[in-house]
């Protein structure tokens, strides 16, 4: 009798956990391009740079399949000019690691069908600005000399 109750309780708990995990899976589905870009942005981890490094911009062209996996090979199409070779290599690796870590993306059927096989351009902007602010010009408060 006790074993039967335990079995029923275990089945009920398993059913609840299954329903909760299915609800979470539905919420995690990516349905718009903004959600897609947001998901990739959350996966992005900029490389560690030495103190004072300016960072850079890098753009990659990539296509996805209906299931959210990468179709073909991603291609770097732009890198900031002011970056050095070591910094460029670090950013290339960071972009490819981001794509590997995030894919396959949990796309809805409609978004997957809409973007399947189409090249998308993704820009990763990690420019770091110096903490110094430019000096303000006071054209409106010119001193009077008598």
Automatic annotation (TrEMBL):
Compositional bias of kind Basic and acidic residues: 125-139
Alphabetized, the UniProt keywords read: Signal
Where is the stretch described as Disordered?
125-146
- Matching InterPro entries: UCP034077
Signal peptide extent:
1-25
The answer to whether the entry has keyword Signal is yes
Identification of the protein by name: TonB-like protein
Q: Which organism is it from?
A: Rhodopseudomonas faecalis
